[in-house]
Design brief:
alpha/beta; 6-stranded mixed sheet; 8 strands
Length: about 150
């Protein structure tokens, strides 16, 4: 399971000209699921996202967690995080989980973040989404947890 986490001032998802999710300060997390992923990876990744200290304290150091700044999370599923573009000009998505596996794990991850006491909103799985982000910093991390780690 792979997450691209961006610290944001705001994030918003629009589907068919309708805003379906909207957050203020916090994280936008793009989440990719592989064919091998389980709930174990989702729990680890959710806890990691919830407890990272990526917000600045009064001295300008990244010392505060999302809890301490009362931030929110916007989760957007993104199978393209597992694109393999090593060969040819068209990427392969063979490592990305099919929707029947990916959707429940994205929902499980979202619930695991919420269980950490963080307000969570989500994009719409499988839909064409416009994601509007005001990246703060910019601060962007790539987090990954594979089976067996």
């Amino acid at each position: 399971m792979r997450a691209i986490l961006q610290r944001v001032r705001r994030g918003r998802v629009t589907v068919e000209d309708k805003i379906i999710a909207n957050i203020g300060q916090g994280y936008v997390i793009f989440l990719g699921v592989t064919v091998d992923d389980t709930e174990e990876q989702a729990i680890w990744l959710a806890k990691k996202c919830a407890n990272l200290r990526l917000f600045e304290d009064g001295q300008g150091k990244m010392n505060l967690s999302i809890h301490e700044v009362e931030g929110e999370v916007l989760v957007v599923s993104q199978f393209t995080l597992y694109a393999d573009a090593r060969k040819g000009r068209r990427p392969s998505f063979a490592r990305a989980a099919l929707p029947e596996k990916a959707k429940p794990l994205v929902e499980f991850f979202t619930q695991a973040i919420a269980a950490e006491g963080i307000p969570v909103q989500v994009g719409e799985f499988g839909e064409h989404m416009l994601v509007d982000i005001e990246n703060d910093g910019p601060v962007t991390l790539i987090l990954e947890r594979s089976v067996g780690e």
